[in-house]
Amino acid sequence: MSRRVLIVPGHGNSGATHWQSIWEASKPGFWCRVKIEDWDHAVCDEWVAAIARDVEALGPDTIVVAHSLGCLAVVHWAARNTVAIGGALLVAVPDPSAPAFPRADSIGFSPVPSARLPFPSIVVASGNDPYAAIGYARSCANSWGSEFLDVGARGHLNAASHLDDWAEGYQLLQRLNRKTRL
């Protein structure tokens, strides 16, 4: 993949066995992780500022790979910025009203913007994600103008889902890259 990739993990960051970390480790130099000071106490404005700073450094051709709360941060960033990017892979979009959502440690992410995203995107969801019903994820994809993919009952699509390097997800990223190539 020739484009720069910005990884935006969810609440708590992604550990070494999370597919985002595995992808990042396999492509040093072209892939980087958004720099957040406190991964356990998420403040939307801080995450949006970090995404803006990193996208500016990486350039407008950047593709963003977001997981969970990182997806909401990317959508908030897109609503507040005019900088175009190459596209975004948005995996396991959480619903701030879901019982499992870490409301006390995730400030300012609700309401979730519903405007169409100004770049190509794919929303990937699982049918048994405790952080969002599949209908919520599909509704977000429709509002954002994103392609939608239901990958079946795979949990929160994180390390606990035992996805390892998640080849299916990487193929989606490659498809997004080809789709947005200039």
From TrEMBL:
InterPro entries: AB_hydrolase_fold (IPR029058), RBBP9/YdeN (IPR010662). It comes from the Bacteria. Pfam families: Ser_hydrolase (PF06821). One of its GO terms (molecular function) is hydrolase activity. This is Alpha/beta hydrolase. It comes from Paraburkholderia megapolitana.
